[in-house]
Design a protein that fits this description.
Blueprint: H1 2-6, H2 10-29, H3 34-54, H4 58-69, H5 71-78, H6 80-91, H7 101-119, E1 124-128, E2 142-147, H8 150-157, E3 167-171, E4 174-180, H9 196-207, E5 211-215, E6 222-226, E7 229-231, H10 236-253
Parallel strand pairs: 1-3
Antiparallel strand pairs: 1-5, 2-4, 3-4, 5-6, 6-7
The protein binds adenosine-5'-triphosphate (ATP).
Subunit structure: Probably a homodimer.
Keywords: ATP-binding, Cell inner membrane, Cell membrane, Membrane, Nucleotide-binding, Nucleotidyltransferase, Transferase, Transmembrane, Transmembrane helix
Enzyme class: transferase
Amino acid sequence: MSDLLASFTLLDLCDILILAVIVYRFALILKEDVAIRLVLFLLAFFSLLVLSCFSGFAATGWLLRSLFGSSLVILAVIFQGDIRRAFMLMGRRPVEPQIRDEELVMIEELIKATAEMAEKHIGALIVIVRQHPIDHLLEIGTQIEAMVTSELLNSIFLPYSPIHDGAVIIQRGKITMAGCLLPISRNPDIAKSFGTRHRAALGLSELTDALVLVVSEETGKISMVHDGKITYDMAAAEIRRLLRKGLDLKRSNKPQPPGED
Ligand SMILES: Nc1ncnc2c1ncn2[C@@H]1O[C@H](COP(=O)(O)OP(=O)(O)OP(=O)(O)O)[C@@H](O)[C@H]1O
């Protein structure tokens, strides 16, 4: 030990300090963005390798030369997560919602109807059933079996229509009921500004996976409710995006009957 200390020079001290800096910088680099990390890592590595060749830093030179031999393996280990992600992205096609033409038409009808009703401040509540059945949660209602069209939705919710109060239910791409009472949410955190129409939408969405569109009679704003959450004052593009996504998820979760795509 005393021999070791006696032969310890200033050069050795610098050598150890350099090693400490390399380890420290290396730890910091790992926290940064992958591309920057890679460039910085390679730059630091080769600069130090060259430096150590022309200086007397034996330990640093030895370490870097040893590392250089297996640098590819080391890089693969350090960046394994990023490399895996890059390969996965390379092999993956962009995910577009898989949605049928009839559903696209239905979505456009819903967007048209809600926009028209919002403009005229006609209140509306429209439930789009996905996987969970909701029949046991509906109190009253009138059975209908009709295509989803903006004209029909507009006329159902007209104030003098006998079935304008309550919710319209859309199942399997058809309007199946109107004038339905939904369970009201008991969530105390719902903003006081939301009345029973919005609370009914929230109540159903807390119990099922249905998507619910609400047009406020008072403000003329359109909201979408799902999973017990409300997105208030939505533009048509956002409604379209969420409906497409929601109906696509419905399909991907559900076992397909034979013959269906
Ligand atoms: N449980 C329910 N299920 C379905 N619809 C309901 C229910 N309760 C109330 N509604 C509908 O909401 C209407 C009353 O809306 P209210 O003004 O209380 O709510 P709101 O959330 O403030 O909506 P708006 O912004 O349109 O006024 C009723 O006329 C009825 O059509």
